[in-house]
Amino acid sequence: MIALLNPNTSAATPASMLSIAQETVGPNVRVRGFTAPYGAPLITDPEALAQAEDAVVSLAPHLSKAWAVIVAAFGDPGVRALRERLPMPVTGLAEAGMQEAAKGGRPYAVVTTTPDLVDHIAQTAVLHGHATFIGTWTT
To answer: Residues of the chain whose pLDDT is less than 50?
Structure first.
């Protein structure tokens, strides 16, 4: 089972993410969704991101049967803390997306609707050693 963690409190968000994830992995792998028990309905600023990190980490005791964990928010809230607590692979959407975008040394940028997280996005690129990150644009 792959655990897909929704770090915000929105109930609609995980339904669409789960559908896409399940379709991607096929019928032989189960994807189970978990939603943050508290926090913001949408992560749009550093305060909501910090709340989401705490909420994601609070889900750790429920993830023991997972083969892998995906934190399904571009801010990757709680990824590092979960890695310290869990034996299975843990990744987040920013880490995985940036890794894919930077393959082969390609330059890449991030476009987002969350201007208050621009600094965090840049810090994430630096954390993962992506010298080809050219910046963040907001819609």
So the answer is: none
